[in-house]
Structure formats: C-alpha cells, structure tokens
Amino acid sequence: MKKFTKTEKSWALYDWGSSAYSIIITTAVFPLYYKAAATDAGVSLSDSTAYLGYTIAIFTFILAMIGPILGTIADYEGMKKKFFTAFFLLGTVSTAMLAFVPSDNWLLMLVCYIFAALGATGANLFYDAFIVDVATEKRMNRVSSFGYGLGYIGSTIPFIISIAIILLAQNGILPLSVTNASRVAFLITAVWWISFSIPMFKNVHQRYFIKREPNPVAQSFKRLGKTIKEIRQYRAIVLFLIAYFFYIDGVGTIIAMSTAYGTDLGLTSTSLLIVLFATQVVAAPFALLYGRLADRFTGKKMLYVGICVYIVVCIYAMFMETIGDFWVLAMLVASSQGGIQALSRSYFGKLVPKENSNEFFGFYNVFGKFAAIMGPILVAVTAQLTGDSRFGVFSLVILFIIGLIVLSRVPEPEPHDSVDEVALES
What are the TM regions of this chain, as residue ranges (predicted)? Predict the structure, then answer.
C-alpha cells in the first residue's frame, strides 16, 4: 500500500480539526456545562438528560429531511464544495456563539447547540461523500480509517487544553470561573476546527459530478424521484442502509449521551473528562487497526466485530455502578467506535455510483440521522419512565442485533476501479 497522497491527507486532516467539536461540544464539555446550568435552574437529572435527547432528535430530524435533496443538488459540478462550506460556516460560527450564551439560560444553550450541530453534521455529510473523490476503492478502508484515526489524535490536543483550563479554574489557579473556562473551550473548538480545515478547502476537489442543467433544483427533485422509483436496482445499498440505520443508532446515541449518563450515575465532571480523554487516545490506534484488518478480512467482517463489541457495551452498562465500571465501558467503546464508523463510510462508498455519490450519501445521512432520532428518544423516554438511565442504554441492544442480522444479507461490493481512479491513486 502506497503512502497517503496530498489529497488524501488534506481530506483526513479535516477530521483532525472537526473532531474537536465531536469531543468538546457533543461529548464532553458542553453536556457537562448544560447539565450544570439545568441543575442550577431546578431541572431534575433525568429531565435534563431527556431534554438533551429531544434536542438531538430535533436537529437530526431537520438534517434528515433536507439531506437527500441537498445531496442530489450537490452532485452537480462544483456544488459539493459550496454546500460543504455553507454548513461548515454554520457549525463553526454557532460553536463560537455558545461562548456568549448566558450561563443561566439552559434553554438558549440548547437552541444554539441545534444550529452548531446542524452545521457540523451537515458538513460531515458532504465530507463523507468526498471520499469517492480522494481515494480509489481499494484504498477506501485505509483512507477512511486514517481520517478517523487523525480525528481522535487531533481532538485530544484542544481537549487537553480545555480540560487544563477548566481544572485550573476549578482550583483557583486561573482567575476564571468554571463557567468562563468552559466558554473558552467553546472558542478553542471553533478556532481549531477552522484552522485545520484549510487544507481541505485548498486541495480537495469534486472529481465525480453531473454536468449542470437548467433549473438544477427541479432536475434534482426529478433525479431523486427516479432513484426512489428504481430503488430495486440498488438492493445491496438498500440492505446496507437498513442495517446501518439500526446499528449506527446505538453508536451515535452512546456517543452523544455518554457524559449525561455518567453524570446521572454520580460520576464527577473531572472523572468524566479524564475518561473521555483516555477514550480518544485509545480509539485512534484502534481506528487505524480496523482499516488494516478490513483490508485483510474484509470491511464487512470487521463491522461484525464492531457491532458485537457494542452489544457487550449495552449489556455491561446495566451493571455499571463505579468509576472502574465506567472505565471498562469507555475502553470497550474506544476499541470500536472509530472503526465501525470509518468502515461503514468506506463500505458504502464502494457500493454507490460515484457520479451520484452525494445523492446516495444523502440517503446515508437520512438513515443515520433518523436512527439518531429514535435512539435518544428511546433512552430519554425509558430514563423518565424508570428513573434509571441504565435501562435506556440496555434497550439499545436490540438495535445492534437487528443491524447485525440485516448486515449479514448485504453482499460484498464488487471492485470496479476505473482508469480515472488509478490515476487518482498515483
């Protein structure tokens, strides 16, 4: 396997920058910041967790609705980068704005979080679709995993800086309140994300596209309708998307609500931040390992491995009571979360027609985002009904099992590298 090309590195480096959002805003600092604000306002622990779940459901529903049509329009020459840029700006600006929301207004925090999440997840839709433009089919597993690996490594740097500022503020070493220290973390996230996205804008370009037509929006709706009518021609894609719908639901829900869940168990903010940092460090080499093993054993078999690990995670979560238990759970998640996401992306990239990659990745986004609606709501409702978040996490196991069964029916993608792809590799 040849070394990574400049284009592949530039594409993967976006993960290095944007993953700061994933760990600081989605997983670590913001959920703790929000939970503290909601608790101070008199909101119960289970209710604040539920409200976060409902918020995640709202923004994922919005993006799921607009994803396919935006993806179809983005298949036109030159449009993919424009849509990517628009969502990128929405995400980075909204993330920075979180630093200026009053600390006693937890509801406004969630509203601002919706726009930040819309931007981040929307940009990722087009970023994922760019994989067909930067890597040949035989390199997709390795390149996709390389992106996730860089993301985990890169995100640890702003994460360490943010944790240090928050802990120093907590101990009175820095002349900042914990609230203001958290706000600094939000600004660091936005700056980091923007800075390491520059190579993506400079060196990654849309290679596969459809020529512009008159009335592109109307034509895009027609193409989308045609794809839906002829969906039987894409049996492998449909089966994979159904499987993906179920198993990625559990993955995304566990990632998005892990800190809120740990808080409900009585774990301190400091302990949670340390565990999350360790998770990022461990996840990086495992993401790269999944890519290498996929080249040897196929991506599908490695997806089986990842799903089985998550089934164990859901079962183990029922018995989690101590910080030691949370460490075990976190390391299990770290061993597979990057690999399962990276290989899902590359597996799907091999299945779809390249000229229509954005349209199909729009469907990929729909199935992923609708799944992300169901998971958080399932956890939220179960947590409120039982008063125990553990039952919500355990209920996710059925989603992984269904995903595993459906995935077993998906055929392996047939290699069809073109002359153009071979040129891309060189």
Answer: 12-34, 54-76, 83-101, 107-127, 148-169, 181-201, 236-261, 267-290, 302-320, 360-383, 389-407
Q: Tell me, which fold does domain 14-196+220-415 have in CATH? A: Growth Hormone; Chain: A; (1.20.1250)
Side-chain-side CA neighbours of 398 within 13 Å: the count stands at 7
Burial class (CB in 10 A: 0-12, 13-18, 19+), 236: middle
Instruction: Spell out the alpha helix ranges (H) of 98-208.
Output: 106-129, 131-134, 140-170, 178-195, 198-203
Q: Where do the H-state alpha helices sit in 318-414?
A: 323-334, 337-351, 357-386, 389-395, 397-407
- Backbone φ, ψ for residue 210 (5° rounding): -110, 140
Contact residues for 313 (Cβ-Cβ < 8 A; gap 6+): 254, 329, 332, 333
- Which residue's entry shows tokens 């909204």? 94
pLDDT single digits (tens) 274-328: 887 788 889 889 999 999 999 889 999 999 999 999 999 888 877 877 777 888 8
Global pTM value: 0.82
Give residue-wise pLDDT tens across range 365-416: 777 766 666 777 777 777 777 776 667 778 788 889 999 999 999 987 766 5
